[in-house]
Amino acid sequence: MKRKIHCRYYLLFITVFFTQSVLAQKTSFINSLSQQNHWVDSVYKKMSRKERIGQLFYVRAHTNKGKAYEDSVGKVIQDEHIGGVVFFQGGPVRHANLINVYQKLSKVPLLIAMDGEWGLGMRLDSSTSYPYQMTLGAIQDNTLIYKMGQMIGGDFRRLGMHINFAPDMDVNNNPNNPVINYRSFGDNKYNVARKGIAYFTGMQDAGLIVFAKHFPGHGDTNVDSHLALPQLPFTRARLDSLEEYPFREAINAGISGIMIAHMNIPALDTTKNLPSTLSRPIVTGVLKDSLGFKGIVASDAMEMQGVVKDFPNGEADVRAFLAGNDLIELSVNSANGAKLIRKALRKKKITKEEFEAKVKKLLAAKYWAGLNNYRPTSTANLLSDINRPAAAELFQQLSDAAVTVLKGDSRTLRQDPFKKTAIISIGVDMPTVFQLELSKWYVNSMIFLVGKNTSLTDMNRMLQTLKGFDQVFVSIHDTRTRPASKLDYSSDVKYLIAALAAKPNAVTAVFANPYTIAGLPGIEKSAGIIEAYQKDDALQRSAVKVITGLIKPAGKLPVSVNTFFPTGTGISF
After folding, report:
1. Tally of CA atoms within 13 A in the half-sphere of 156 that contains its CB
2. Which of 184, 182, 359, 169 shows the shortest CA–CA distance to 251?
3. Distance CA 208, CA 215 (A)
4. Partner of 20 at 20 to 30 A CA spacing, among 6, 13, 341, 349?
5. C-beta of residue 91 within 8 angstroms of C-beta of residue 125
6. Rounded to an integer, what distance in angstroms lies between the CA atom of residue 259 and that of residue 277?
C-alpha cells in the first residue's frame, strides 16, 4: 500500500515537473512568428477569401442579455467566419458554457478575448478582482505584479479564454482624464513601463496573448474616446519621449499585442479629424516600421464614437484594415466592414502579401494558444478554481505593499491605544472594515458615520461630541464602482474633513483615488495621512496594519496630487 502511494506521488511530481518544463521551454508568441508553421499554412490554404477576411473580426458577446442575443452572436460566427469573440458582462459558468457552444459553431477554433485589466472580476460576477493599476503603481516589488499576471492568466485559460486586452500602459499625466485615470500605473513613464512589463510577462508566461493599450498613449487627454474624438496636440519629440516610451519598452520585452487608441494626433498624421486607428502613418509607419513591432495590432473598439462618428457603415473597419490593424475589435457592422475589405482587396489597395501576413499572424496566435488541439472547457469546480484562496491571499499582499504613508511616522499613526478614540468613516452609511478592525486595537473607542450628504446640523452635533475625545482617526471612502478624481461629497462634508484634519493628532486614511486629495483642501494638516487608493476590504485591513505596526509601509505615490504630495511621496519606517 505504501509503495502505491509513493508511486502516485512520484507520478504527480513527474507530471507537474514536466508541465512546468514545457511552459518554461515554450517559444514566445513573438518568436514563434518567425518559424514555419504547417498548421497555419494548411488552415490558410483551405480558406476562402471570405473566411480569411472573417478572421480579422472579433465581435461582442454577453451572458447577461438572454438567449436571443446569444443566438444572434452564434449566427454571426457561422455566417461570417469571424476570428474571435470578445466577452463582456455575465457569469463565469455561463461564459464557459457559451464559449463551448460558440467553439462548436466555428469552422476554425475561435480566439476568446476579454478586457480584464484587474482580472475576471472586471467583467464577471462571482469572480476575483485584483487592485486597479493605479493602486499597483504604488507597489515597489514588481514580482508581486508578475504573480498577479500569472494568476489572471491562469483564470482566463481555466475559463477557455486566450486573450486579455491588458495591461493599460498609458502614462496618466492628466488628473482630469475621464477614461484612463485609475486604470494607469501612474504618471511616471519608467514606473508605468516596469509595472506593465511585469504584469504582461506574468500573463504571457501563463499562456495568454496580451495587448498593451492604448498606443501611442491616451494618458494626457480630457475627452473620453467612447463619446468623442480626443486630440493629442503634442510635438513628435514629446510623444516619442513620453507617451510612446512604455510601448517601446513593452515591444523590447516581447509583448504579443498592442491596441491602437482612437485619437487625432496632428504631429503624426496631419489629416483633419482622422482617428489614429485609421492612420497608416501611425499604425504602420510609427508602430510597425519605426518601432519594429511584429506582434498583433488591434484596434480599440470600433463601436466607439471617437472612431465611427465620421466613418460610419463599415468605413472605419476598412480604413483600420488599410492602416495596418490586424484585429478589428467590435465592429458596428462586421458584415458590411468585411464587404468593404473585399472590395479594397479587389482594387489592390493593399498587397496580397500584407493581407496574407495579417491572417496568418492571427492563425499563429490560435496555434500558440493551443487551438490546433482544441478541447472544450470543463465547468466542474470552475468557481472554486477561479476563486481559490491563493487569489485572496495575493490581493492582500498587493494591498499591503501598495498602502502609502504621505505624512507621519509610526508613533504619530499609532497614537495611544488606551485613550478615548473616535473612529470616523466618511462617505458611507454603515460601519467599515477600517473601523471594525481598528476598534479591536483601541479599547476605549467609538464609531461615527458621516454620509456623502449628511446635514450640517448633524455634523456640527458630531463635532461637539468629539470635544470629549482625545484622538481621532478619519477614513474617507469612495463607494462608487470606479474611483474618480473628485469625490461626490457635498461641500459641507468636505469642510468637515478639513475641520477634522485640523484636530490635534488626527490621522486620515483615504480609500479613494489619490487625485481626490487635491479636492480636499486642509487635509494636509492631518498629523498622519495614509493613501490606500480604493474601497476594498483588503486595503482597509492594510491601512490598519500600518497604523498598528503589523506591517511597515512601503508604497510610493504613483501620481502627483499637488505641491504637498508629488509623485514618489511615501514614508517608510
Report:
1. 35
2. 169
3. 20
4. 6
5. yes
6. 9
Distance separating the N- and C-terminal Cα atoms of the chain: 55
Query: Torsion angle, CA of 531/535/539/541, rounded to 10 degrees?
Result: 110
Single-letter amino acid code for the residue at 210: V
Alpha-carbon span 426 to 432, nearest angstrom: 10
Reported as a single tens digit per residue, the pLDDT across 159-180 is 999 999 999 999 999 999 999 9
- Reported as a pLDDT band with limits 50, 70 and 90, residue 6 is very low
DSSP code string of 415-473: --TTS-EEEEEES-SS--HHHHHHHTT-TTEEEEEE-TT--HHHHHHHHHHHTT-SEEE
- Closest to 55 measured CA to CA, from 359, 282, 262: 359
Residue 242's closest CA among 168, 134, 170? 170
The grid coordinates of residue 369 equal: 494558444
Q: For 451-462, how does the pLDDT look when each residue is reduced to its tens digit (9 = 90+)?
A: 999 999 999 999
pLDDT at 25: 53
Cis omega before residue 216 (within 30°)? yes
Q: How confident is the model at residue 26 (pLDDT cuts 50, 70, 90)?
A: confident
- The residues, ordered by sequence, that sit 6+ positions from 377 with a Cβ below 8 Å of its Cβ are 96, 99, 100, 158, 159, 160
pTM more than 0.85: yes
Specify burial of residue 374 (Cβ count, 10 A radius: 0-12, 13-18, 19+).
middle
Cα separation, 258 vs 246, whole angstroms: 11
Q: For residues 275 and 307, give the distance between their C-alpha atoms in angstroms, rounded to a whole number.
A: 6
